[in-house]
Amino acid sequence: MTVPVNPLREGLRLARTPDPAAVVIFGGSGDLTSRKLMPALYDLAHLRQLPAAFTIIGAARGAMSDEAFRAEMHDAVAAFSRHRPLNEEVWGSFASRLRYVSTGGTGGYDELKHALEASDAEHGTGGNRLFYLATPPAAYAPIVRSLAQGGAARGGGWSRVVVEKPFGRDLASAHALTEALFEVFLEREIFRIDHYLGKETVQNILVHRFANGIFEPLWNRQYVDHVQITVAESLGVEERAGYYEQAGAIRDIVQNHLLQLLTLVAMEPPAAFDADAVREEKVKVLRALRPVAAADVAARTARGQYGAGFVDGDRVLAYRRELGVAPDSETESYAALVCYVDNWRWEGTPFYLRTGKRLPKRATEITVQFRIAPHQVFSREASAGLEPNALVIRVQPEEGISLKIGAKVPVQGVRIRSVNMDFSYGASFVVDSPDAYETLLLDALRGDATLFTRRDEVEQQWSFIDPIVEGWAAGSAPLGTYDAGTWGPVEADLLLARDGRTWRKP
Fold first, then answer.
1. Average pLDDT of 300-307?
2. Residue 447, pLDDT above cutoff 90
3. Cα–Cα distance, 143 to 141 (Å, whole number)
4. How far, CA to CA in Å, does 472 sit from each of 259, 261, 335, 459?
5. Is residue 7 part of a domain?
6. Are residues 162 and 247 in the same domain?
7. 416 pLDDT exceeds 80?
8. Model-level pTM?
9. 365, 359, 368, 337: which is closest to 491 by C-alpha?
10. Which of 168, 192, 216 is the last residue of a domain?
11. Are 70 and 45 in contact, with CB atoms under 8 Å apart?
């Protein structure tokens, strides 16, 4: 039977071309622009998904000519675009819409205003403006205020601002940043970006749950034993020690990426696939998270810091020996915690979250482990190789979904072994998955905030994380150590061992 589609319930995520617009990237000479933003915009142009009328203005404090900026971006796109080798014809058309404005001296924002007005006149961008803050967080509020004071924030069309993470470093600073943004922009004009939400497999969590009738009836405490969410990195702090020393794993990954993944796994079905409906259900999950009381910090969390070791066969330094890290640093490079969603669907079901640097491999995955069959009719010898059913959603690097089931080994008699039924993006589709920044930039241009975080989401996340950070600062949970190239400190294993469980190795 074909289910009729109500066009009023289709939501905002339609494949439509965005309105004409000028994109202003603050931090235009920075690493994020070179590695992610400009290649993503070029790839969108290559796929003809940008509007015919658009301009891109790189803005930064340093002086640079338009020609030098274009040459720098040419090299960046050639190196990091997913459409390689670079198509010079596409690049030529794309580069003709690029220019650079220095905001470092007096009158920098006046020049930006003039550049935007020229864009409207020459390229027909219609006063529509997307401002992207690809700068250190301390610059967010000053930039927004300067936009307003210089008259560049509004041009007669729509105006939107994209804010990179971290959005604050605690609840108080996140609230203060939102208030600063509210001086110039409305909530519907603020797009707080978490690039994990732009990944195809992350979006596929919702499709997997809500487009398939076989999983949703099982997606609850009656059938799910527990959930594990892992964000593992093989890299160390690299050149980010200055930032990482202030953030640590809990602010860098847990507060945003991991909690967002948790909401997508745990949320109720939205009334429609649009921004308000989806984000409302995610907020309900965050509000239902059981707080970590001071007395529970040691029992519900673990933290660690990597020592020297081997990753991919190479010897690597300990965290405290990394350039820019204090020799007595107490910053965690690994964090794990057990969460409970206190609602009708998930009461008593643990969600185990972990992230760490210098782990054996780079991998992000979600494991939904189901309860074992209530009565085992096969002998212990026959079912010795049987493991609990598990649904594994691989977010990166090999995107796909795997379902572990029990199957009879083709021998005389009954012998059962666990096998995997695999879905792989690479094998199932002939097109490459778009980069997360392509998806999110295009959505911001369209005004679709479904994959962006709302103010109350961010503040609920910090409300949950702040007591853990405070407990760690007070010494409630010791800072463990682990050798680089291993799966973390023993304290993290104990989190699950207390419940009779173990971490799944990606």
1. 97
2. yes
3. 5
4. 19, 23, 11, 20
5. no
6. no
7. no
8. 0.91
9. 337
10. 192
11. no
From the list 114, 35, 117, 139, the residue with the least C-alpha distance to 81 is 35
Predicted local distance difference test score (pLDDT) of residue 15? 56
Q: What is the DSSP string of 113-125?
A: HHHHHHHHHHH--
Residue-wise pLDDT tens digits, 174-224: 999 999 999 999 999 999 998 888 888 888 888 888 888 888 899 999 999
Residue 226 backbone phi and psi in degrees, to 5: -165, 170
- In a domain? residue 5: no
Would you say residue 477 has pLDDT above 50? yes
Residue 110 domain boundaries? 16-192
Q: How many CB atoms lie within 10 A of CB 116?
A: 24
Do 101 and 211 fall within a single domain? no
Write the pLDDT tens digit of every residue in 459-468.
Answer: 999 999 999 9
The reported pLDDT for the residue numbered 430 is 66
Same domain, 180 and 210: no
Instruction: Please give the pLDDT value at position 197.
Output: 87
User: Is the CB of residue 425 less than 8 Å from the CB of residue 200?
Assistant: yes
Is residue 106 domain-shared with residue 38, that is, in the same domain?
yes
Backbone angles phi, psi at 392, to 5 degrees: -115, 120
Judge whether 20 and 125 are in contact, CB under 8 Å: yes
Q: Map residue 179 onto helix, strand or coil.
A: helix
| Distance between CA atoms of residues 445 and 17, nearest Å | 9
Tell me, what's the pLDDT at 1? 42
| Residues assigned a catalytic role | 257
Pair (264, 338) in one structural domain: yes
Among residues 124, 158, 192, the one where a domain terminates is 192
Sole residue written with tokens 């965290």: 319
Asked if 313 and 175 sit in the same domain, the reply is no
Whether the link from the prior residue into 360 is cis, omega within 30° of 0, is no
Domain count, the chain: 2
Tokens 């598990």, located at residue: 390
Quote the mean pLDDT of the chain: 90
Average pLDDT value for residue range 78-101: 93
Decide: 194 and 455 in contact? Cβ < 8 Å.
no
